[in-house]
Design a protein that fits this description.
It holds the Pfam family DUF3458. This protein is α+β, with helices and mostly antiparallel strands. The protein is built from 26 helices and 33 strands. It is globular and about 90 Å long.
Amino acid sequence: MEVPKEIFLKDYKLPDYYFDTVDLSFSLGEETTIVCAKISVVPRVDGVAAPLVLDGIDLKLISIKISGNELEEGYYHLDARHLILKAPPSGSFILETITEVLQKNSSFEGLYKSSGNFCTQCEAEGFRKITYFQDRPDIMAKYTCHIEADKSLYPVLLSNGNLIEQGDLEGGKHFAVWEDPFKKPCYLFALVVGQLESRDDTFTTYSGREVALRIWTSPQDLPKTEHAMYSLKAAMKWDEDVFGREYDLDLFNIVVVPDFLGAMENKSLNIFNSKLVLASPETASDANYAAILGVIGHEYFHNWTGNRVTCRDWFQLSLKEGLTVFRDQEFSSDLGSRTVKRIGDVSKLRTYQFSRDAGPMAHPVRPHSYIKVDNFYTSTVYEKGAEVVRMYKTLLGNEGFRKGTDLYFERHDGQAVTCEDFFAAMRDANNVDFANFLLWYSQAGTPIVKVTSSYNVESRTFSLKFSQTVPPTPGQHLKEPMFIPVAMGLLDSSGKDMPLSSFYQDGKLVSITSGAQHVYTTVLRVTKGEEEFVFHDLDEKPIPSLLRGYSAPIRLHSDLTENDLFFLLAHDSDGFNRWEAGQILARKLMLNQVVNFQKDEKLVLDPQFVHGIKCILLDSSLDKEFISKAITLPGEGEIMDMMEVADPDAVHVVQSFIRKQLALELKQEFINKVKENRSSGKYKFDHVNMARRALKNTTLGYLACLEDEEMSELVLNEYKSATNMTDQFSALAAIAQKPGKAREDALADFYNKWQHDFLVVNKWLSLQSASDIPGNVENVKKLLDHPSFDLTNANKMFSIIGGFCASYVNFHAKDGSGYKFVGEFVLQLDKLNPQMASGVVSSFSRWKRYDDTRQNLAKAQLEMIMSANGLSKNVYEIVLKSLVV
């Protein structure tokens, strides 16, 4: 095969030409679509006539004109990927092309049909599948879009901006003309045409403008869009209140597409996968409702962080995505529990991003190179990028951060910019020096920070000594110290926060106090390989609470004893650190028991740990959702990441043992929590009710671990009596933990009830695929032949394969059956959708973390994939990087 070309950040060059206006006309047909493009072209340097290179894939060129004159073939070059105008005019000109687009398109990029409707997906490089264009984000233009289609088949015609004209045409057709008055890159262009109906509402902005809001979906799903509309209006109000950002058009559309990949922020025409919009209490869980709130917010927030101010090039992707993830995290925090949201976000970061940082797929928040940009829509760009933005806020405070974003929008509205531009706005708005902060964008890897403490009785001083290292990553073996903000406090012997007034750093006194207000949390700026901070005038040895709120995306190792951790678990005023203390204790316990298991020694549950869990469980002053999080053990992947050689079998046995022992020793307490928190009355999506359901279902999951007929009956009754999907599916998951007739009966009952609701069926598929029951690969193979499964539907594909890869004991089965199954599936999927296939094959990337037997089996699958004919660039890049490490 032809070796794909690698693209480098250092090779970025300004375009030779800009586009001022783009007029598109679509004549949509059942077999082909004709696209006419009329583009106003402006040279960057007037009088210089460089070749104009246009991107284009899977297009048939019908005609090309410059300023009204048809071009002959000798004046341009056409190949499978480009249309090159060899010698265009030296000044401004009008470029007109007519192209034919074939409808057979399973890539979910460009223009394609989904469930009988036309839709588009242009980010990152899908616009080149619609017409010949400079498909890069720094080409920003004003667009108009003329759409023609059969009126009976496609009664709704949607595109970006404002609808300025519509009407009927001969032959049963009709048309619509849309105009977007704001400049945008082509990746934000969108078109949706089909059989749709809308839920309509309005929002009045803070300047008094009324904005029409419409959520489009199939008629039968309209009742399930109520929560999405609530989420949209809440996001619009929140963005005004918190960031001062007002919506800029008179119309905002959201369209629901069943097999769309995720969600897309196209200007004024957001397109969403069904699972990210549709919800009802009977069919959607609390987690679904929360995801809809967050993702609706995320895509709306892009209107300013991504659309009005966009990326200069795709290496700057985190400029829009990291910032917007941070904004949606803050939005969800403000509408729910900030502590619980933070715990969830950090858990996700550690599960997905930390493991990426520790493997062959490690890359900086702003990558230095790529083969296929689709492969960099990663947890590093999104979640770690959000942590980088959060560190600005931690360092500057709410007011300083807002000053920074205001300056960013003021300077760069309507521009395509870089990560340095955002950094400069934060720095200049607050007149501060961030020293080596930009390393967070260019240096890969998770910093490891070690802290040792000491108290001097005579001098009444308390010292914190920090040392930091960043492990080597592919292409970056030597690392520099990072700028790490460490939010911290000190607790006295009664568990109360101690007032902080000042500390010494490098022999210099740093004042903390702010007026007459006591300060209990301060931010230490760790910027060197080794650094010491000394607090004075302390009458007793304090217990330090470090990295409060998880103020930096690092791995922190401290000299806190187990007694110190139990003390923090009981008393820390920082909710995140209280949870973290319990997690550190649980991780230590699990790792110790893994060693015992590997030595064939007896597994033992520490009574002090059980007591700590019991105290949290029975503490009525605590938020119930926090309790649910605090009594949940760390994930198996997190524990394996802490091992020199990952052992999925041992970790699974240990986690199962601890869960079962906790259930035995706290059985009555768990039963009480189930009974106390049962649902009653109408379903409500609010924090109080979500927290109650979370605690009830977490304790129910523990009880289901017991080999106890009474508990089995309890769980089954919870399933049968459930009045909402959250409770019903949680009970089903509890039953499905163990193989047997009860499991099979419950799964069959659930499917028979919900077989006509594809989103609920996807939950059913995922639950079975992710199961840890022995030999589950054979069950998953059967699911691929189930009538409900469709390989071309992204939701169904991820439900099965994504679920299976999340089961460490089955994907990493010692006989290689999991690897073989997924490897063969990748090749099958790559022919249909390379973007999804590359996501699946990434599951193999850390194969060297395991024992020799597993390494050989996983490597064999990677080599088999690499040797396949016609492998996509997407999959090639992931496999290549996995094998070279």
